[in-house]
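Homework help board

Subject: predicted structure for assignment chain

Our instructor gave us this sequence and asked us to write out the predicted structure in token form, then describe one feature. I got the tokens but I'm not sure how to describe them. Can anyone check?
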Amino acid sequence: MKKILGLTLLAGMFAFYACGPSAEQKAAAEKATQDSIAAAQAAAQAAEAAAAQAAAAQASADSIAAADKAKADSIAAAEATAAAKKATGKKKPAPKKEEPKKEEPKASGKLDVKATNTAGEKKEGSGKLKIK
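My token output:
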């Protein structure tokens, strides 16, 4: 009985191995997997390129819109300023002209000293001063 059971198990193992995929089938499965990966990567790259192009188009549209808004704001501000000037009827005062500054005469560096003595008499150029 042991011999029959051993032979049956051995035959089952050969049958299991024989029923599995062949080398050609394994190669075909591997090739299909690689093709699927390549297709997924190509689709991802195409999606990234489309997203980048859409972002560039959106940025361009945003910058154009910002420039148009700035232009409209500038025109509105100029019109408001003109309307305010027209309503008040006043003109902007002309800028004042600056007069040239007059230079003060420079000192000669000599002092004129008048001294008085103790009696109250004035002397010119004595060089002695008394401070009260």
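Reply (TA_rk): Your tokens look well-formed. For the description, you could write something like this. Residues 93 and 99 are 18 Å apart (CA to CA). That's the kind of observation they're looking for.
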